[in-house]
Amino acid sequence: MKATIKWGGDVKFIGESGTGHTVIMDGPEDHGGKNQGVRPMELLLLGLGGCTSFDVMSILKKQRQDIVDCVAEIEAERADAVPSVFTKIHIHFKVQGRKLREVAVEKAVALSAEKYCSASIMLEKGGVEITHSFEVESVE
Predict the structure, then answer these.
(1) Which of 31, 43, 104, 113 is 20 to 30 A from residue 83's alpha carbon, by CA?
(2) 31-61, pLDDT tens digit by residue?
(3) What whole-number distance in Å separates Cα of residue 70 and Cα of residue 31?
(4) CA–CA separation, 1 vs 11, rounded Å?
(5) Burial of 93 (0-12, 13-18, 19+ CB in 10 A)
(6) Which helix (H) or strand (E) holds 5?
(7) Domains in the chain and their CATH numbers?
(8) Where are the transmembrane segments (predicted)?
(9) Separation CA 102–CA 105 (nearest Å)
(10) How far apart, in whole angstroms, are the C-alpha atoms of residue 121 and residue 109?
(11) Residue 58: CB partners within 8 Å, gap ≥ 6?
């Protein structure tokens, strides 16, 4: 896996993944940026959310759950001192579907957290406390 980060002036950077996708990172205006892209630490949270959401959906599909929507809401706390690392992250899944089994969603979230989500497991090994919760909403 490869990535390239290119300076775009001031505190703006353009990241390109090995697969050719790009993302703009920029700082806030009070730090010389123009607020034209996500902050690097926000991008880390987005990566974590994408990783675990991918797992949860994949597991639920294998369990033949009829999913209509899945949203992962992430809240994080950072240390006050530099480096301002993440100290706590909470991921709350909102899963909508037809005739969903709550136990299936619970199992999918647990498997992602404990076995499959590389981003989550890596951050936990680095000392970040990561917690999970979920809610299930049935739709017709």
Answers:
(1) 113
(2) 999 999 999 999 999 999 999 999 999 999 9
(3) 35
(4) 25
(5) buried
(6) strand 3-7
(7) 1-38 (2.20.25), 40-138 (3.30.300.20)
(8) none
(9) 5
(10) 13
(11) none
Q: Tokens standing for 36?
A: 């034209």
Q: Which tokens in the block code for residue 121?
A: 């497991």
12: tokens are 């703006």
| Whole-number pLDDT of residue 140 | 83
Rounded CA gap, 90 and 87, in Å?
10
Residue 77 phi, psi (nearest 5):
-115, 145
Name the token pair of 5. Answer: 């980060």
**pTM of structure:** 0.92
Helices 118-125 and 40-62: crossing angle in degrees, nearest 10, is: 130
Rounded to whole angstroms, the Cα distance separating 101 from 55 reads 17
